[in-house]
Amino acid sequence: MLAAGAGPSERADQALSELCAGYWHPLYAYVRRRGYDPDDARDLTQSFFVRLIEQRRLAAADPVRGRFRSFLLTSMKNFLASEWRREAAAKRGGVADIVSIDAAVAEDRYRVEPADNLTPEAEYERRWALALVRRALDDVRHGYADRGEGELFDALKAYLGANPRRAPYGELSRRLGRSEGALRTASSRLRARWRTRLREIVAETVQGHRLIDDELDDLVRALAPPS
To answer: What global pTM score does this model have?
Structure first.
């Protein structure tokens, strides 16, 4: 992920593309929670990435100095406090598409969860956690699909969390033609693969095993129901 801050190269371009695709929505949600309307939030998020790239600010995202999650949030706060806020509003429709943000999709994702009293910062933290969890889930899903086990993944993914609506193993056994014991083993393996992939993704944004564990703890707290 931090390779996006390197000089021009195919690897840097790919890392930058992944950065924009994976993390624009937590920032969009933060801007929306700050009170901006959907159009302004979309333009500001686009302009933020333009500024980040043009000024090569990603080179400052040294994991030794902190967490990439915090770096992005602090950068966005500074961005909103600068003259770029007015410039972005004046250039609506003319912002370069560094990251593709479909207005309808952005709002659908923003409104998918019930309204609550989270601060903009807490909203960002939650959306960041969701982005990492979903990325890990998608990566594991692709792995199962590549092995021709997409149906098994779809059947067992509900067991990754406390889902009261998940089908009992007996029902899955009849549907998939596998024993309950085999399905329980497969479920355990799926959970282990997902946790491993999530840890790998978190490791891309911090340095050191201690920070990985701390970041995972923060992720769990961010996803906990509001008290």
So the answer is: 0.77
